[in-house]
Amino acid sequence: MWKQALLAGDQRHPLTPGVKYTYGTAGFRTKANILDGAMYRVGIVATLRSLLLGKTIGVMVTASHNPVQDNGVKIVDPDGEMLATEWEAYAVAIANAPNIVEAVEELARRVGLDVSTLRHGTSSFSGRVVVGKDTRPSSEALTEAVKEAVVALGAEVIDCGLQTTPQLHFVVRTTNNPRPDVEATERQYYVCVSEGYKRLVHGLHAAEPRSLILDCADGVGGQKAKLLAEYLVGYLHLDIKNDGTSADADLNEGVGAEFVQKEKKIPRQISLSNGHKNKRCASVDGDADRVVYFYLGEQGELCLQDGDKITTLIAVVLKKLIDEAGINGQLRIGAVQTAYANGASTAYIRDVLGLEVACEPTGVKHLHHRAAEFDIGIYFEANGHGTVLIAPSALSRLEVTLNQVRADPTAAPEKKQALERLLAFFQVSNQAVGDALADMLLVEGALAILDWSAQKWDQIYSDLPSRMLKVVVPDRTLIHTTHDETQVTKPAGLQAAIEGIVTNYKLGRSFVRPSGTEDVVRVYAEADTQSAADELADTVSSLVSNVLSKSHAI
Q: Which terminus of the chain has a smaller tally of CB atoms within 10 A, N or C?
């Protein structure tokens, strides 16, 4: 009976006393040594969701860009996207429940799942969970805890072993959306993105293959980038650094996208000298779901090309291809950013390229869903996490248009080529989640099509100087904002006061938002010079501190 099987496993994987687990955009994430019990229960949640939907669910064991002593887990929905928001609360309830059997029965009642199907399934489906893990030493045992729970409930487990997070999302999505020409395998992932890249750059003559220095954060991306490189021979040479195999390998420490973006320093094992100026480099994070670019500037400084710059580059090349294909105005294209996106990026996309720009709250789930409302939606957070989506109807229109052009002997070759490249672009782009390796190929393809160097890309706009501060407050819940977090709605008068301050600064912009985890308010400011941005941030911070102190006292 399922209850006995579940309880037996729960006793082998007890919860850590005094720990409360919370599930957010990053899933469950904390110190690895207190995760065993929560991992077992994640296996339960994934199995229940699989049974309810009659679909395969994914579980990825990783803590992404966190230090090696941490670990975590993300549940992947059938379409390859992150777990549905309403199920995050269910996952928290199961993970923290003192009585696991009662918690399972309560969840089943809430979602309308017949518990008699547990360990027996329906007549045609007993549940299926696909699991993957990163290279952390703790990942193996934690993955086994997930698998044990799935088996206890009578469902099937498919263990994909070491995977990047986007690869597991790919496997889940293709499993649930089968096509005769696409296998739900890691190998198929390499075939899809590499063949798409080759089609994207077809006809662009170069004396030798493009070359990129790639920092893999000493994570799972190192192994997978090596495998991908085998499919790209003759088209793109990857000089892979920090692949996790060297004696000094240390996951995410002094390496990776998070380090480069936050510290603006060159990662370990990468030596750039005067002879390497303008040499393109990229860094992925520990589970390879985000990427940033950088190069050495003329003064020996690190020049960062973050998610904002990637968004803008993608917007430029897509607009170029759509114009060349003669379908301008037929597709609704938009970029989705957060309030933290640099204002110069937003202005370039909106005012120079003439594309829509939408603003959403912080968190890739918000950006992804908004991007899906466009025919073509581009989204990247500044940290390099993002992708480019195309609506199925828009993809079909491109395919129909290409077939029409191919059948027309009078059609210009440039039009056919542009349409072929657009379709190749979306063969590379991960339609489910941010994917560092696929995004890297999109950037490389875009630069090749535009014939741009790293420096040329960087010069399309100059970031406005900015400053972000944290203000410790008695009660962060006193701050309420609009949906996109750019305007304060409460306390009354605070937004007007911020706007009054901003008018004193050229190209000034500032907003405040409460932290989701601690009693602080985050203040962001931009202006035409760094000193002005610093001063604006300080002034708004003082205003917030004074207003909230008075409001709390009342």
A: C
Beta strand segments in 3-69, E: 28-31, 56-61
Q: Are strands 480-481 and 488-490 parallel, antiparallel or unpaired?
A: antiparallel
Nearest residue to 57 (alpha-carbon basis) of 129, 124, 126: 129
Average pLDDT, the chain: 94
**Is 0.85 topped by the overall pTM?**
yes
Count Cβ atoms within 10 A of the Cβ of residue 362 and give its class: 0-12 exposed, 13-18 middle, 19 or more buried. Answer: middle
Q: If pLDDT is split at 50, 70 and 90, which confidence band does 518 have?
A: confident
How would you class 532 by CB atoms within 10 Å of its CB: exposed for 0-12, middle for 13-18, buried for 19 or more? buried
pLDDT tens digit sequence for 445-461: 999 999 999 999 999 99
Distance CA 62, CA 29 (A): 8
Token pair of 381 as six digits: 């957070």
Q: Residue 409 carries which DSSP code?
A: T
3-state secondary structure of 273: coil
Q: In the predicted model, is pLDDT for residue 301 greater than 80? A: yes
> How many residues are there in the chain?
554
Share of the chain above pLDDT 90, in %: 86
What's the CA gap between 479 and 552, in Å, rounded?
Answer: 11
Query: Which is higher by pLDDT, 518 or 461?
Result: 461
pLDDT single digits (tens) 119-135: 765 557 889 999 999 99
What CA–CA distances, in Å, run from 318 to 26, 127, 355, 369? Answer: 30, 40, 11, 20
Average pLDDT on 55-84 reads 96
DSSP calls for 443-482: HHHHHHHHT--HHHHHTT--PPPEEEEEEE-S-GGG-EE-
**Closest Cα to residue 60, out of 79, 37, 43, 48?**
43
Indicate if 466 belongs to the active site: no
How far is the C-alpha of 55 from the C-alpha of 397, rounded, in Å? 29
DSSP 3-state assignment of 224? helix
Q: Write out the DSSP string of 421-438.
A: HHHHHHHHS-SSS--HHH
Q: Is 96:20 a contact under the CB 8 Å cutoff?
A: yes
Which of 169, 160, 167 has the alpha carbon at shortest distance from 139? 160
In order of 234, 547, 554, the CA distances from 535 in angstroms are 51, 18, 29
More confident residue, 549 or 106: 106
Angle between helices 494-502 and 530-553 (to 10 degrees): 160
Nearest 5°: CA angle at 289, between 36 and 243?
85
